[in-house]
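Incident log, structure service

09:12 report received: a user says their structure output differs between two submissions of the same chain.
09:20 pulled the input from the user's history:
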Amino acid sequence: VQLVESGGGLVQAGGSLRLSCLASGFTFSIYDMSWARQAPGKEREVVAFITNTGDRTHYADSMKGRFTISRDNAKNTVYLQMNSLKPEDTAVYYCNARRVDGKNQYNYWGQGTQVTVSS
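09:34 re-ran on a clean worker, output below:
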């Protein structure tokens, strides 16, 4: 199982970035996906979620209207479009795949990609 994030980098406040997460080693289309982030000294927080079919999404309050999560099941990829970035969005962003099957839970994380927003 692999989740490989890409697209992070340094951007000025007000700018945009698009993160990608390429999945392999499991059936991507049956997993719900999310993006989470962790800033230095802070706990990891989920910023966006999308169901396996892409029919429903959910965002943390501070990301609503600025971030958009999407997925392409044919490409085994989930995306996070981030607009109007703020310095407080600086963090390592992680891709997560999760599935619950009866009593079994499957939970996979990528290695993360750094996003730095300068003021």
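09:41 both user submissions now match this output. Likely a transient worker issue. Closing.
09:42 reviewer note: The CA atoms of residues 71 and 78 lie 4 Å apart. The radius of gyration is 14 Å.
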